[in-house]
């Protein structure tokens, strides 16, 4: 882990040259460094225009400067922002001056890491921020905002609190069973609550598919016999010449993909080799890769030339298949397909895009979904412990399982609660009287 007592700086805005470059500093030397550059430090949280001078007294640039005294900053430390002209030479010189003043370049994610260490944001929020920055579609943005600033952390902490609460009631029954102030058998109600929580968590985990689809994209594989028009369709959807198209059967061998933005959803479309028996070693490898891609697909678009004899449905047993007839411009419509398309006239392509979005939306369960494998594995771990607790016989072991479940949840946000077990006992049962 990088040294957290260092003062750090970085270019926080995009690639230079640019209109403006935001240089962010964080740590105990930030204000000192600003004072050295500008002669005076402006009042907190107010943008002020200043000349920035080097140690030799020459003007490096003019820029807006803002100070954020600890703890009221993004990192929770003293922070300074310099909004400079977005020149590489200006940034190079400022970097040099800041190094002379005892600051070092920040490592990747180091500002967010400090925000986490200083309790400004939890791990779920850190991950949400990372997702927000890399979001490319509207739905990725919404999911990231829900995670980063929405209810996700709260939800997991509430669950952990409910478990701690249940445990408190059970511990109370264990320890103080002889005392009059403890209600008789609270157990039944506690375990009913825990069972309800477990069901809620299981539903949440089951919605993971939505999170995966939004974050990693809905995987659509174009499959079908050689020459059906698979690569032509990929090119038409991508609106550029991605894949080689020829009238020779067996043209495509590698799996190619393009990313589409359909109604704000990331859709990852794969073109594959036409599936057939062949002696060509290269093509055979292509067919093997095509089959692997089909296995991993969320949706398979099974293409077939409309005029070709109906195919044995080789794709039966797959979760979702859309049967699409191709070359409708030369063949005419046919009933046996879900829809017919032509890449020459563009017929059916909007309908196909609509159908892909419609299939995708069948998985839709809202934005309050786990979206990372890390979260899902802790959630699973927690539900396993809860199941153990529900099935157990010895009250103290069952209570211990609830503790383990709560701490698995705590690891999601990175704030394994210091338990308020006794608080709950004392507040509810007046044990301390
Ligand atoms: N110029 C600029 N724009 C930016 C950021 C930044 O650091 N600088 N951000 C960086 O990612 C994001 C905004 N996030 C921020 C989050 C918290 C604080 C902050 O200073 N929080 C204090 C005070 C809160 C308040 O005034 O209400 C705090 O939490 O105590 C600043 C930015 C996006 N835009
Ligand atoms: N008229 C017409 N021709 C098409 C259409 N779509 C594809 N073709 C033609 O059909 C031939 C095969 O197209 P490809 O896209 O290479 O077919 P493929 O399914 O990728 O074939 P393989 O990669 O060999 O499996 C090419 O000559 C295309 O120009 C269409 O909608 N209308
Ligand atoms: Mg092809």
From TrEMBL:
Binding sites annotated in the UniProt record for Mg(2+): 231, 252
Taxonomy, superkingdom: Bacteria
Cellular compartment(s): Cytoplasm
Domain TrmE-type G as annotated: residue spans: 217-361
Metal-binding as UniProt keyword: yes
Annotated GTP binding sites: 227-232, 246-252, 271-274
Residues where K(+) binds: 227, 246, 248, 251
A GO CC term attached to the entry: cytoplasm
SUPFAM superfamilies named in the record: P-loop containing nucleoside triphosphate hydrolases, TrmE connector domain
Keywords: Cytoplasm, GTP-binding, Hydrolase, Magnesium, Metal-binding, Nucleotide-binding, Potassium, tRNA processing
EC number(s) recorded for this UniProt protein: 3.6.-.-
Cofactor comment text: Binds 1 potassium ion per subunit.
Family note: Belongs to the TRAFAC class TrmE-Era-EngA-EngB-Septin-like GTPase superfamily. TrmE GTPase family.
Function: Exhibits a very high intrinsic GTPase hydrolysis rate. Involved in the addition of a carboxymethylaminomethyl (cmnm) group at the wobble position (U34) of certain tRNAs, forming tRNA-cmnm(5)s(2)U34.
PANTHER family hit by this protein: TRNA MODIFICATION GTPASE GTPBP3 (PTHR42714), TRNA MODIFICATION GTPASE GTPBP3, MITOCHONDRIAL (PTHR42714:SF2)
Protein name: tRNA modification GTPase MnmE
Protein species of origin: Rhizobium deserti
Higher taxonomy: Bacteria, Pseudomonadati, Pseudomonadota, Alphaproteobacteria, Hyphomicrobiales
Gene from which the chain derives: mnmE
């Amino acid at each position: 882990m990088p040294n957290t007592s260092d003062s750090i700086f970085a270019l926080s805005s995009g690639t230079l040259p640019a209109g403006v470059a935001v240089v962010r500093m964080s740590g105990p030397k930030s204000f000192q460094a600003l004072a050295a550059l500008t002669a005076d430090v402006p009042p907190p949280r107010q943008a002020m225009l200043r000349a920035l001078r080097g140690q030799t007294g020459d003007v490096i640039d003019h820029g807006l400067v803002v100070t954020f005294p600890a703890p009221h900053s993004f990192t929770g430390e003293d922070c300074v922002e310099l909004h400079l002209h977005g020149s590489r030479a200006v940034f190079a010189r400022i970097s040099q001056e800041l190094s002379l003043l005892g600051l070092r370049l920040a490592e990747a994610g180091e500002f967010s890491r400090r925000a986490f260490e200083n309790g400004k944001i939890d791990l779920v929020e850190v991950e949400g921020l990372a997702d927000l920055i890399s979001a490319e579609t509207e739905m990725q943005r919404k999911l990231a905002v829900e995670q980063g600033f929405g209810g996700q952390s709260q939800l997991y902490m509430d669950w952990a609190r409910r478990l701690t609460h249940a445990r408190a009631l059970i511990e109370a029954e264990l320890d103080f069973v002889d005392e009059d102030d403890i209600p008789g058998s609270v157990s039944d109600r506690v375990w009913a609550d825990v069972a309800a929580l477990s069901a809620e968590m299981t539903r949440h985990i089951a919605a993971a598919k939505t999170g995966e689809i939004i974050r990693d994209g809905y995987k659509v594989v174009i499959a079908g016999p050689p020459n059906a028009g698979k690569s032509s369709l990929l090119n038409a959807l991508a609106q550029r010449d991605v894949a080689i198209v020829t009238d020779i059967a067996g043209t495509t061998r590698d799996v190619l993909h393009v990313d589409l933005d359909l109604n704000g959803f990331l859709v990852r479309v794969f073109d594959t080799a036409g599936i057939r028996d062949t002696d060509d070693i290269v093509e055979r490898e292509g067919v093997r890769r095509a089959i692997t891609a089909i296995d991993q697909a969320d949706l398979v678009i099974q293409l077939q030339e409309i005029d070709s004899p109906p195919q044995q449905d080789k794709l039966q047993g797959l979760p979702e298949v859309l049967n699409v007839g191709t070359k409708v411009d030369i063949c005419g419509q046919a009933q046996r397909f879900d829809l017919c398309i032509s890449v020459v006239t563009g017929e059916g392509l909007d309908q196909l895009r609509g159908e892909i979005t419609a299939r995708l939306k069948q998985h839709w369960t809202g934005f309050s979904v786990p979206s990372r494998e890390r979260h899902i594995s802790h959630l699973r771990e927690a539900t396993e412990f809860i199941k153990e607790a529900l099935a157990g016989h010895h009250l103290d072991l069952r209570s211990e399982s609830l503790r383990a479940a709560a701490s698995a949840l705590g690891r999601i946000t990175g704030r394994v609660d210091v338990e308020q077990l006794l608080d709950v006992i004392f507040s509810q049962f007046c044990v301390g009287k």
